[in-house]
PH domain-containing protein
Amino acid sequence: MADPIMESGPSLTAKGNLVFKETTRLRFFGIPWPFTHYQIYENDLVVIKGLLNLDEDDCYLYKIADVNIKRTLGQRIFGLSTITCFVASDASGDKIELKNIKHGKEIKDFLLSQSEACRLRRRTVATQNLSYHDGHHHMDEYPGMDHGVDLNHDGIPDDLQH
């Protein structure tokens, strides 16, 4: 079966390699229901919905702050899962759901680890407050250090590591 939306060379390389490709399945019987497709690349999560009119929604993996997996009894019987990706600052909203898919645990683990790897590559810090230390700042403990500088490029300012 051909991909729902054809992609050109430059868009494929920007997204990275395709790692997972899933289709929403019927909750009962686990039969593929071809109206929603999920493509997970090294750098992007793509949700394609529709049969005649297609709606494609991309989300950079570095924007995924957390990932949750749920498996109802019916889903467990047929080996399905629903993954919820909590997204920071995306036009899709604050979460993206991948409903009734196979390989849920593997996809959840990949999304969680790859989103962190993408943040580190882009030197992007998630929506965490890294300057919080027991309710007050300890900046005076490091005289002469430039506050907020990240010399080792790990995404955390060096004055906050000790």
About this structure: Strands lie at 18-25, 32-41, 44-49, 55-60, 64-70, 81-87, 95-101. The two ends are 54 Å apart (CA to CA). The chain has three helices and seven strands.
